[in-house]
Design goal:
Layout lengths: L1 H23 L9 H23 L4 H25 L6 H22 L4 H5 L4 E8 L3 E6 L2 E6 L9 E3 L15 E5 L2 E4 L2 E4 L20 H11 L8 H10 L8 H16 L2 H11 L9 H16 L7 H11 L23 H11 L5 H6 L4 H15 L5 H20 L3
Parallel strand pairs: 3-4
Antiparallel strand pairs: 1-2, 1-5, 2-3, 5-6, 6-7
Helix pairs in contact: 1-2, 1-3, 1-4, 2-3, 3-4, 6-15, 7-8, 8-9, 8-10, 8-15, 9-11, 10-11, 10-12, 10-15, 14-15
Length: 416
């Protein structure tokens, strides 16, 4: 799917570049048009930027395809409007070109929008793996750096999971260290085989919609208040509040210093502070997902989904995310053994969840906390209760991280 998205971006960029050259009079004489060639050149650069981002950050291919092609379609529709009102070029080739490129852009957007969810990306071919761990309600398979979870119905929907309809006990035969295999429509581990229709897979999209408009700060403040954090002033005060409500990392000196760096990075939009915070918090804490990683993931997801509404977008957003979640978090299905800076500094499961969080893909109740729509407003309180029951403190760390980041985004951005 990534290759298809990249192919669309490359073809569209080439088409706009060719159109610009025509309107420059380079390829064909008689069709020169100043405004058209400038617009087409800009759109070609936008599409090439999307292609470059896809190659630099493969995990963002879907988002890059949607953003670049969406902007290109908007610009093209403006061009169509200028033709209609008589300002733009009205030759027959120009009209045919605009109609054709609109169709291609819409097609490319549909392809990008239908890109598979994280799990389906990893089971399009046959792959072997190893069972990292197993419990009553979940098992984890390492597929070359990406960790696939298999969960029972008691566990909230995870962005990297195959969710069973069976309850606790269904994974009793699965033992750590055992072999596992995945193929389209099938996962096998420890004598348990899970199957689905590969042509029509049951699934949900863990990607939280990017928010628009006000409400970022109010949601952050409300989430923190529900968790018992009510003293909201500067980052040091917020760190102290997090410690008072039981966040273990905030209660020890080095961890508290790392969290303060993280919060200041959000408040000041500072990638250097973000990189420093990541250096302190990555791998901090016990378990499959250390608490420091849970906080980083929560903040990364908040920046991705709520940042644009607070003025953090484009290069600024990309810089912050790259600082918090270094490339190679969970591998990309290509790096041997999931090699990457982040994967070497924390657990494979935490690395997987961090990279997905930077794409705005999180556990379902955390996604509700980040959803500022009317439906999200109705659902977030119940989702918070479910999130708090996730793991041994992981869910509560996610909630505190989301609330803190949202409040700080609004405190700097003035968006309420």
């Amino acid at each position: 799917m990534r290759q298809r998205i990249r192919a669309f971006l490359l073809f569209e960029a080439a088409a706009f570049a060719a159109a610009a050259l025509v309107h420059f009079g380079v390829l064909v004489d008689g069709y020169e048009h100043r405004e058209a060639r400038v617009a087409e050149s800009v759109i070609a650069l936008v599409l090439l930027a999307g292609l470059a981002l896809s190659l630099i950050r493969p995990a963002w291919t879907r988002e890059a395809g949607l953003a670049a092609q969406g902007l290109a379609l908007l610009g093209t529709l403006v061009g169509v409007f200028t033709i209609i009102v008589g300002v733009g070029p009205r030759t027959a080739p120009d009209i045919v070109y605009h109609l054709g490129i609109v169709a291609v852009l819409v097609w490319g957007l549909v392809v990008a929008a239908r890109a598979p969810a994280p799990v389906l990306e990893r089971v399009r071919g046959t792959a072997g793996g190893t069972v990292l761990g197993a419990g009553a309600t979940a098992a984890w398979i390492d597929l070359g750096g990406f960790v696939l979870a298999v969960t029972t119905r008691e566990v909230p929907l995870l962005p990297n999971a195959v969710a069973l309809t069976a309850g606790a006990g269904a994974l009793d035969r699965v033992a750590p260290g055992g072999a596992a295999s995945c193929s389209p429509g099938r996962v096998s581990l420890g004598g348990l085989t899970v199957v689905w229709d590969p042509a029509d897979p049951p699934g949900w999209d863990p990607t939280v919609p990017v928010a628009a408009g006000a409400g970022v700060g109010r949601r952050g403040e409300a989430v923190l208040a529900a968790l018992g954090v009510r003293s909201l002033r500067a980052p040091p005060d917020l760190v102290a509040g997090l410690a008072r409500v039981g966040l273990a990392t905030a209660a020890e000196p080095d961890g508290a210093a790392g969290i303060e760096l993280l919060l200041r990075a959000v408040l000041d939009r500072d990638p250097d502070l973000g990189a420093a915070a990541s250096g302190v918090l990555l791998g901090r804490g016990p378990g499959l997902t250390p608490e420091g990683d849970d906080l980083l993931a929560a903040v990364a997801a908040t920046l991705t989904t709520l940042g644009p509404a607070a003025g953090v977008a484009g290069v600024s957003l990309a810089g912050l995310l790259a600082a918090l979640v270094p490339q190679g978090a969970a591998g990309d299905g290509h790096a041997a053994g999931g090699a990457g800076r982040l994967a070497r500094r924390t657990t494979a499961l935490a690395a997987t969840l961090l990279e997905l969080a930077a794409r705005g893909q999180v556990v379902e109740p955390a996604g509700r906390l980040l959803d500022l729509s009317p439906a999200g407003e109705r659902a977030w309180r119940g989702a918070l209760r479910r999130l708090e029951r996730l793991g041994h403190g992981s869910g509560r760390a996610y909630a505190l991280g989301i609330g803190s980041a949202a409040w700080l985004l609004a405190a700097r951005g003035g968006v309420g």
